[in-house]
Amino acid sequence: MSGKIDVIFPGGKRVDAKIGGMMIRTDQSLENGGAETAPEPFQLFLASIATCAGIYAVEFCQAREIPSDGMTLSMNYEFDEDKQLLDSIHIDLKVPQGFPERYLKAVIRVMNLCSVKKNIIKAPQFLLTAARSNDKDG
Questions:
Q1: Are 12 and 34 in contact (CB under 8 A)?
Q2: 88: which residues sit within 8 A by CB, 6+ positions away?
Q3: 40-121 carries CATH number 3.30.300.20
Q4: pLDDT of the chain, 138 residues: tens digit per residue
Q5: CB 50 within 8 A of CB 73
Q6: What's the rounded Cα separation, in Å, for the pair 27 and 99?
Q7: Domain map of the chain by residue range?
Q8: Which string of b and e fits 17-53 if b means at least 16 CB within 10 Å?
Q9: Alpha-carbon radius of gyration of the chain
């Protein structure tokens, strides 16, 4: 499988990504010189971890016909400002009343299969290039 994401620069500190027919908008906080009109890219990265764990939890429930109404997930993290790296991530799933006790450990195991987490643990190779565009004006 391969894919492509196109990035556009609509102005200011906005940097938006086009994925298929969808646009994901990002901006920087006011303190970082942006207009704070959208999440920062790092916030989207963090959200991708939490939502990936969440989809695995929902699919676990759906596969077993366990209602997920009232289920919530929160993620807390510690960030080392000096190193500019995450120190720890804690994901906490709150299951609804009636969730079978016997599945608590199993749903955690399933959330651990999150593809975003797996790609952090075994990071891909990054190849970056830069070149002048081939436009007629420049």
A1: yes
A2: 77, 78
A3: yes
A4: 899 999 999 999 999 999 999 999 999 999 999 999 999 999 999 999 999 999 999 999 999 999 999 999 999 999 999 999 999 999 999 999 999 999 999 999 999 999 999 999 999 999 999 999 886 655
A5: yes
A6: 39
A7: 1-38, 40-121
A8: eeeeeeeeebbbeeeeebeeebbbeeeeebebbbebb
A9: 19
Instruction: For residue 38, give Cα distances in angstroms to 4, 11, 21.
Output: 22, 13, 19
Q: Which of 14, 59, 17, 60 is nearest to 37 (CA)?
A: 14
What is the three-state SS of the chain? Answer: CCCCCEEEEEECCEEEEEECCEEECCCCCHHHCCCCCCCCHHHHHHHHHHHHHHHHHHHHHHHCCCCCCCCEEEEEEEEECCCCEEEEEEEEEECCCCCCHHHHHHHHHHHCCCHHHHHHHCCCCCCCCCCCCCCCCC
Which pair of tokens denotes residue 109?
């195991």
